[in-house]
Amino acid sequence: EIELDHKDLRWVGAWWLGFLVASSLLFLTALPYLFFPREMPKENGADDVESRSVCKPQQQQDPIRELSLVQFLKSFPRIALRTLRSPIYLLVVLGQVNLAALLSGLATFMAKFIEKQFSQTISFSNMMIGGVGIPLAVLGIVLGGALMRRFNVSVSGASKLCSGVILLCMFSALPMLFMGCSTKTVAGIYPERSSSLSCSSHCPCPADAFNPICGSNGVEFRSPCHAGCLSRQTDGNNKIT
């Protein structure tokens, strides 16, 4: 049996537990929607506007809904071109693309960046992303909605608010370019030198082996084999010593 703990590089853990907890929380937050009425009460003078619209002879139907499939396919390029000419639509799409790129890069590489650059454990790095980064992002979304509701921000004001906050985040993130530790010394990789190491010259180490281990001298090796071994023996339990 291989005994592993949370500090071992081969440790996976109950990765599905986070999805189970998240789905349970989403289910709880969705329950209030079941108690919403079929029709929401109108605000301000919306009732008068609706009553005047009903008094019209007949409401015009959307011409796009009356098109057949072939007619819709023929008119689709013209509709798409007209949509792409809208600067508001393009800015919204550009903002969503940048947000998706930011979140995908954050979820994929930030934990590994914290682990290697600041010499932290895997569990601590993931906790910084899941326990600090994501809750603060949710708090920012709620706080932005509360500010817009409290001060009755218009569309133009919302755009200025978003631009100001993004600029503030950019200037706040600039110090991260100068933070961190120097690149670790990895035997045979950095600094660049011959791939044959004296400590492991007698070991038949596979070239694709990757199980990083740090020596007592502060040098990191690609695997325990590359760290050097003088003999290869197995005991009665077929364990390599």
Structure explained in plain terms:
- Its main location: membrane.
- The chain crosses the membrane at residues 14-36, 88-107, 127-149, 161-180.
- This is Kazal-like domain-containing protein.
- Belongs to the organo anion transporter (TC 2.A.60) family.
- It is found in: Cell membrane.
- With 241 residues, this protein is an all-alpha fold.
- 50% of the residues lie in helices and 2% in strands.
- The chain has 6 helices and 2 strands; from the N terminus they run ααααααββ.
- The protein has helices at 16-30, 46-54, 69-84, 87-117, 122-151, 155-173; strands at residues 213-214, 220-221.
- A two-stranded antiparallel sheet has the order 1-2.
- The longest helix has 31 residues, at 87-117.
- The chain starts with 15 loop residues before the first helix and ends in a 20-residue tail after the last strand.
How is this fold's topology laid out?
Layout: H1 16-30, H2 46-54, H3 69-84, H4 87-117, H5 122-151, H6 155-173, E1 213-214, E2 220-221
Helix pairs in contact: 4-5
Biggest sheet statistics: 2 strands, antiparallel
Rg over C-alpha atoms, rounded to the nearest angstrom: 30 Å
Mean pLDDT metric: 77
Percent range for β-strand residues: under 5%
Outline: elongated
List keywords for this structure.
cell membrane; membrane; elongated; disordered C terminus; Kazal-like domain-containing protein; 241 residues; MFS_trans_sf; two-stranded antiparallel sheet; mainly alpha
In brief:
This protein has helices spanning 16-30, 46-54, 69-84, 87-117, 122-151, 155-173; strands at residues 213-214, 220-221. It has 241 residues and is mostly helical. Strands 1-2 form a two-stranded antiparallel ribbon.
